[in-house]
Design goal:
- It holds the Pfam family Flavodoxin_5.
- One of its GO terms (molecular function) is menaquinone-dependent protoporphyrinogen oxidase activity.
- This is Flavodoxin domain-containing protein.
- This protein is of the alpha/beta class.
- The chain has a single domain (3-174), classed as Rossmann fold (3-Layer(aba) Sandwich).
- The protein is 42% helix and 22% strand.
- It is built from six helices and eight strands.
- β1, α1 and β2 (33-37) form a beta-alpha-beta unit.
- α1 packs across α6.
- It is globular, with a radius of gyration of 16 Å.
- Bound molecules: flavin mononucleotide.
- Flavin mononucleotide is lined by residues 9-14, 57-61, 88-91, 100, 123-125, 129-130, 134, 142.
Length: 175
């Protein structure tokens, strides 16, 4: 099984998480796992792969525009292979995290109805990444958020292990 991990990232945290997932997946499945920025994926860029993971940073409670466009434009190719997704944000409360996860997943499912799984990972945000008016209001939106690095690499590994096992099963069933 060959896997494409398609990434939309503004400040690299989503890319680092995608790379970590790739390393972990390689311990479960034999084929290549390739991490690429969505901006660099050509129109027919999904076709060489048998599975896809799409990852995007969250801005204003939605995926970045390249990720939203990717799942719309690649809708047909994505319907022909198993697809998983992850979002990276810094929701300040568990309650808001659940809401944000649910909202984004519903949006993704409009283009990828058979989505195998989606999760939200905590990311990293620093004051200088935000325009000052946004920085001023950041603790209220997304609710309760703080500046800092909240990436939980163990959680990333756990999710990658779960997806890796699902991919492995898929390969065994289609053999
Ligand atoms: C302009 C801006 C808006 C953001 N809006 C949200 C948001 O609505 N919800 C959220 O959970 N995180 C939000 N974040 C936090 C980012 O999703 C988080 O920093 C993530 O790690 C970014 O990943 P990246 O480094 O790959 O760009 C925002 C960050 C920025 C810079």
């Amino acid at each position: 099984m060959s896997v494409l991990i398609a990434i939309a990232s503004a400040h690299n945290t989503t890319t680092s998480i995608g790379q970590r997932i790739a390393t972990r997946l390689a311990t479960h499945i034999p084929g290549p796992v390739v991490v690429r920025a969505i901006a660099e994926i050509p129109a027919d860029g999904v076709s060489p792969y048998s599975a896809v993971i799409v990852g995007s940073a969250i801005h204003m409670a939605s995926w970045l525009s390249p990720a939203r466009k990717f799942i719309t434009h690649q809708r047909t190719a994505l319907s022909e292979r198993p697809v998983w997704a992850f979002s990276v944000g810094v929701p300040g409360t568990e309650e808001y995290a659940a809401k944000e996860t649910e909202k984004i997943e519903a949006e993704v499912r409009k283009s990828v109805p058979a989505l195998r799984g989606h999760t939200l990972f905590r990311g990293r945000v620093e004051r200088e990444q935000l325009p000052w008016p946004v920085a001023l209001f950041f603790k209220w939106f997304p609710k309760g958020s703080q500046f800092g690095d909240f990436v939980d690499w163990e959680e990333v590994d756990k999710w990658a292990d779960k997806v890796g096992e699902e991919m492995k099963k898929e390969t065994e069933e289609t053999r």
